Amino acid sequence: MSDTANPTIDSARQDQPTPVKSVKPRIQAGSLTPYMFVTPAIIVMLGGLLYPIFMAFYLSFYDWEIGRPFSDAPAVGMANFIRMIQDEQVWEVLWVTLRFGFWTITIEMVLGIALALLLEKPIRGASFFRTIFILPLMVSPVVVGLIWRYLFDARSGWINYYLTTWFGMEPLVWLGDPQLAFFAIVFTDIWQWTPFIFIIIIAGLQALPSEVVEASEIDGANWWQQIFLVKLPMIQSIIVIALLMRIIDVFRGLEVMLIMTGGGPGRSTELLSLHIYKRAFETQQLGYASAIAVLLILVVFGLSLAILNFANPMKTRSDV
Length: 320
What we know:
- By secondary structure, the chain is an all-alpha fold.
- It is 67% helix and 0% strand.
- The longest helix has 32 residues, at 88-119.
C-alpha cells in the first residue's frame, strides 16, 4: 500500500464539519435548591436589619413628635445633626458609655477567659461550677436590674447590711453618689455578662485538637506557654467574635440602667442608648433621637471595623 495520501479522501475529511462538544451549564437546577430554602429567611433578616437603620436615617431629617402625624412633620435637613454636635449632653453620655464599655468589656474578657482556662479540664466539681457561672444569663435584664437595685439600696440592701455587720462600715448611698452608682452598674454588668464570655471561650478551648496540645507538652511547653503560645492564638477568631458581640451589647444596653438608676444621679450612669430613649419617649423628640441613633450606629460600626482590621485572624491566612 502506497504511503502517498489520497487527495480525494483528504478533501472529504476537510469538508466534514468539526464536531462541537456540548458544554454543560455551570449552575445546575438542583444546586439552587438550598438557596431557595434560605432566601425567605435572608429576606426577613435583611428587612429586620436594614429597615430600622434606613428609618433612623430618614427620620433624622425631620422634626417629628409623638402625637403629630408624620405628614405634618417639617423637614429640617441637617438641623438635628448640627444640634447634636453642639449638644454637650450627647458628648457627656457618649463619654460615659465609652468608659462603661472599657471597664466592663476588659474585666469580662479577662474573667471569662480565666474561668474557661481553669474549668476546661475534667476536674471534680467542674460541671457544678459551670452551671453556677451561667445562671446570670438565664435571668432577664429587667429582673437583673430589680435584683441589684434592691441589693444596692442604701437603707435595706444586703450589701450595706453585710458591710456594716462584718466590717463596721457606714452605709453607703450606692445609687445616689455618681462614682458609686457608676461602679454599681459596672459591677452588675460584669456579673451578668461574664458567663457569656465564659461559655464562648470554653467551647472554643474544648474544640481544640488534642494532638496540638500534646505536641506542645512533648516539646517542653509549660502551662503558661501552652496558654499564650498555643491555646489563645488558636481561638483568636472566637475571642474577636466575643469581643464584637459585647461591644454591640454595651451600646444597646438599656433595661438594667433604666431600672437601677434611671441614668442618674445627674448623667453619671446614662448611656447613649438610654439618652436616645429619653429623647424619643420622654421629651418626644423622635427626629432628634433618630439623629443620635445614627451617631450610635456610626460609633459601633467604627469600633467594629477597627477591631476587625487590627485583630482579624483571616488576614493572615494565605488561602483567603
